[in-house]
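Extended Data, record Tetraspanin
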Amino acid sequence: MDCGIFTSKTVLLFLSLIFWAAGAALAYVGAYVIKSYDNFDSFIQDKYTLVPAAIIIGVSVVMFIFGLVGCCATIRESKVGLTFFFLIIVGIFAAEVAALVFSFIYQGKINKDLERSMNEVFIKYDGQNAETKAVDYLQTQLQCCGVMNYSSWSNTTWSRSHNNTAPVSCCKNSTAQCTGRLDQPDLLNIQGCEAKLDRLLQDVLGYAMLVILAFAVIKFFGMLSVCVITCRSGSQRSGYQPLYA
């Protein structure tokens, strides 16, 4: 068997087999991105950063189905099947490139309105409402306090009506010694939540971008392999040789 065709078929079979694994991985990444943003949706007014995640999940669904198509087309040496598989790869490759582009674009937009939206939520803190739960969850999970830093609480109505204190979710440890007093910074998480939340969202999106890029590279080699098989078989033989020949 021609070395080029053998290698190309091997690549296509490998590509077909990893379609299922890739689909599962992409579904996990997309769900992880959405879950990460959903945990802090009270502080993120614009949902444009979920566009790449939605594309990733959509791609993962079709990859499960088309992985079987590619495997059968390669083993059965079907020109029609391989052509269809090529178009599938091109479509998925284009979707992944689009998701990558969106990720690059939106990565720089995450923190533009973050401070304003966070200030709006923090100012509504009253110890009971939905904003209170969101703020407490944020400060506990990220071990932060206030928007810019712990002193940001001094500008809120809640702090002024509670003897210039911050919520106990700002405390480093949930002990009776910490009551949230701003004049006891050694007992508080002094770092602001905006920088930590922005870093978290940037890391999540960056992780998704790396996964997208890795699978896009795999699709690119898959397209090259289909082209090699089609060109070689068209000029040298009337049909494909089996992989095991």
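Summary. The CA atoms of residues 65 and 229 lie 23 Å apart.
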